[in-house]
Amino acid sequence: MSRHGGSIVLARNSVNLNQIKVMLRIRPSSKKERGNPSSKNVFEIIDEESVVFDPNENNDLLAMYSKKRQPKNLQFSYDHIFGPETTTDEIYDQSIRDVINHLQDGYNCTIFAYGGTGAGKTFTMLGTPVHPGLTALLAEELYSTLMEDGIGVEIICSYLEIYNENVHDLLSDIHPPKALQLLEDGSSVVVSDLSWFRPSNAEELMSILRTGNLRRSQLPTDTNKESSRSHAIFQVAVSLKRRFGTFCSKLCLVDLAGSDRASLHTDMRRRVEGANINKSLLALGSCIDALADGLQHVPFRNSKLTRLLKNSLDGNCRTIMIANVSPSSLAYDDTFSTLKYAARVKYIKNSVKKNLVSARNASVSARDLEAAKVEIALLQMEIESLRVENRDLKTTVKEHVCVAPEFRDRLQSCSPVNEPDDDDDLPFTTRNKIYSDPGCRSSLQSSGSVFEEPGMSLEKPRPRSESSYEIPRTREPLSRRSTETLEIDSPKSTFREHTDVIPEFRDYSQSWLAEPKQQRSVIVPIVHVQERQVYRDPNPNTERRQSLTKLQRAANQIDSKTETKIDENQNRIFIWIALLVASFCFLMLFTSILVQRWVVSGAKHENPEFDGFVQIGIYTGKKSFNVGQGWNTTDFQIGELVLMEGRENSLNADNLWGTVITMYTCIILEVSAIILAIPVLFCPAELILGLRGLSVVNFLCFLANVATLICWMCAYFNAFQYNVLPQAELNDKWSSIGQAYFGFSFWSLIFESTVRLLLAIALLFKSIGKPFNKRPALGDNTISSTSA
Ligand SMILES: Nc1ncnc2c1ncn2[C@@H]1O[C@H](COP(=O)(O)OP(=O)(O)OP(=O)(O)O)[C@@H](O)[C@H]1O
């Protein structure tokens, strides 16, 4: 019972969540109202939930008998009454803050401000820079609360107005604004071609809102110099991914246009505007009446406003109505009308449900559809942003280029039109998995490790063996890049993991990009990465982790050995030179043997007119004497020299045998040096013999040469210096004592030995730090299965 006798309680308070929450906000008197003597306060606030409209004045008796209009003296109760002193912040704290929790729980929410023109709707919803409205406060808290979750939160927004019964997109740049269509979609209405934005923070959301406000139709009225001539609906869709599903909720913030008295306007445009505003508000009133009376038919289709607010009034939505009123009697009719509206709204019941899109429960219902619509809007946003990202990437790709055949091939292989032909031949599922990974390209691009240049010929890797492929070596200038084989046991690892884990890949891409563009095509790869399926661990996580650990270890080993790897191209040239030098040396040795002029000894006669000499080889010798009748030449066997009698120092057999043995050793080693150098040319050095092996062989050649030379020097000093002529010629007054000197064969061998020694040193020098003959065993630079 009211303390005001005769007043009627038109609204009752309720805590039912399905009911629309109705709040009354009485704004402070404006300057104009305060300055008007006929203006008086029409409210008496009883408590937080009750207010008396047009209360009886104290001099009741006088009023009763005077001709003055009788005060209505009506008491209204709402969920909350906010007096003129209450700030928007306080309203937010007391009644609006819960909206964030509802959104988080997956409930749709609508807050709409209702009231006559100049009653304070826009002030409440949007506010001013000094007094932020509910939208700003909600936006701030929405981001600060939801973004704490981090991953799985998406917020998008749209802003539209209904002006003269046309729906305009306030965020569209099209001018004049295009009238958008409303499409019936089951129980709800969708605005076609409405643009949605994804603000990343509250400030961005507010700037979107401000942009929309600038485009909103406004005109000054008698009551309000910035009167909104359209109904504005700002929508914020929220998607929250939770473990058990995705909550999709939507917040609608509605700032209705104030009712207008068309008769006050002479301007035709203003009259039409006013008529349309009133028409839509009337339609809203009819709907509220029908809903409050529980009628079967609610005339939502009578206006665009009611069609759009249908779900907020009659559907799955938690709705808050803020009835804005002026305290002044100057807005008496508007205020009374608003109070009645608000009181009727209290009787409307909604059916509020959570919008949970569950993977398990896929039954299609109205609320699922509602959630799906929000989801669709979010996905459309995502598509749009991906389009932009794709365009940016295409631009970036023109400046960055795929850095290695392996990378490029993989990128190529990601494309369905460019599947590698030999993919099926790959022995391991690992490789097939990588090649067929459709996310490969995007993951590579987003990793920032790999780039692709359109127009560049993409060559395939040259498999070294059926389970290996090529990747570029790093830390070498591109022009000197060589081939190496890297074995990595990575049965389940993706290519992305390769690029992430092996620093060489990244280094390569960086060095590649650092080179001038015209030089980039000179790519001589190659490191071979051999993927071997080693693990049979059924637990993919363990396997993956082990694989990554192994990759990391392999990468470290590559790092430490990079400096010691052989540049194959350089090696080939070097080995070619070594082979030519070795062949030349062998030629010298062969010529030495062929010429058989190791020692040449003069033969003097007592008669100085006579002349002669003896050429001494390994097996044979030749004597030439000129006794005045021309030269007389005879061959002889070296054996004869050994067995020769009458010599002061005979040429002993040891020297001869030593020469024969060392000479044969020379021949064998030199031939083998040539033979061994040939395969090294055509296979990786480490795999066959290695440079150091060749160096050793050449050094042995040198030693054999030296041994031969020593034999000859011994023979020279022991025998040839004294006498190489038989007794008969001695008797004929011939003598060779002290006249021997080294011949062509000896000097040729000395020259060859020197060259051979230099070659051996060069090979040794070149092979420093390289494996001796074979590449290291598999376990040395790969990770064997046991190492895990
Ligand atoms: N609670 C308040 N405190 C201070 N000033 C207020 C308050 N409410 C409204 N005003 C002021 O009253 C004027 C009219 O307010 P507002 O524009 O919000 O009205 P409205 O209901 O949106 O009007 P219309 O429907 O014509 O657009 C503005 O100058 C605004 O600053």
Automatic annotation (TrEMBL):
<comment type="similarity">
    <text>Belongs to the TRAFAC class myosin-kinesin ATPase superfamily. Kinesin family.</text>
</comment>
<dbReference type="GO" id="GO:0003777">
    <property type="term" value="F:microtubule motor activity"/>
</dbReference>
<keyword id="KW-0175">Coiled coil</keyword>
<dbReference type="Pfam" id="PF00225">
    <property type="entry name" value="Kinesin"/>
</dbReference>
<keyword id="KW-0505">Motor protein</keyword>
<keyword id="KW-0067">ATP-binding</keyword>
<keyword id="KW-0472">Membrane</keyword>
<keyword id="KW-0206">Cytoskeleton</keyword>
<feature type="domain" description="Kinesin motor">
    <location>
        <begin position="19"/>
        <end position="348"/>
    </location>
</feature>
<feature type="region of interest" description="Disordered">
    <location>
        <begin position="436"/>
        <end position="487"/>
    </location>
</feature>
<protein>
    <recommendedName>
        <fullName>Kinesin motor domain-containing protein</fullName>
    </recommendedName>
</protein>
<feature type="transmembrane region" description="Helical">
    <location>
        <begin position="740"/>
        <end position="765"/>
    </location>
</feature>
<dbReference type="GO" id="GO:0005524">
    <property type="term" value="F:ATP binding"/>
</dbReference>
<feature type="transmembrane region" description="Helical">
    <location>
        <begin position="694"/>
        <end position="720"/>
    </location>
</feature>
<dbReference type="GO" id="GO:0007018">
    <property type="term" value="P:microtubule-based movement"/>
</dbReference>
<feature type="transmembrane region" description="Helical">
    <location>
        <begin position="656"/>
        <end position="682"/>
    </location>
</feature>
<keyword id="KW-0963">Cytoplasm</keyword>
<feature type="binding site">
    <location>
        <begin position="115"/>
        <end position="122"/>
    </location>
    <ligand>
        <name>ATP</name>
    </ligand>
</feature>
<keyword id="KW-0547">Nucleotide-binding</keyword>
<dbReference type="InterPro" id="IPR001752">
    <property type="entry name" value="Kinesin_motor_dom"/>
</dbReference>
<keyword id="KW-0812">Transmembrane</keyword>
<dbReference type="GO" id="GO:0015630">
    <property type="term" value="C:microtubule cytoskeleton"/>
</dbReference>
<feature type="coiled-coil region">
    <location>
        <begin position="369"/>
        <end position="396"/>
    </location>
</feature>
<dbReference type="GO" id="GO:0008017">
    <property type="term" value="F:microtubule binding"/>
</dbReference>
<feature type="transmembrane region" description="Helical">
    <location>
        <begin position="573"/>
        <end position="595"/>
    </location>
</feature>
<feature type="compositionally biased region" description="Basic and acidic residues">
    <location>
        <begin position="459"/>
        <end position="484"/>
    </location>
</feature>
<dbReference type="InterPro" id="IPR036961">
    <property type="entry name" value="Kinesin_motor_dom_sf"/>
</dbReference>
<dbReference type="InterPro" id="IPR027640">
    <property type="entry name" value="Kinesin-like_fam"/>
</dbReference>
<keyword id="KW-1133">Transmembrane helix</keyword>
<dbReference type="InterPro" id="IPR027417">
    <property type="entry name" value="P-loop_NTPase"/>
</dbReference>
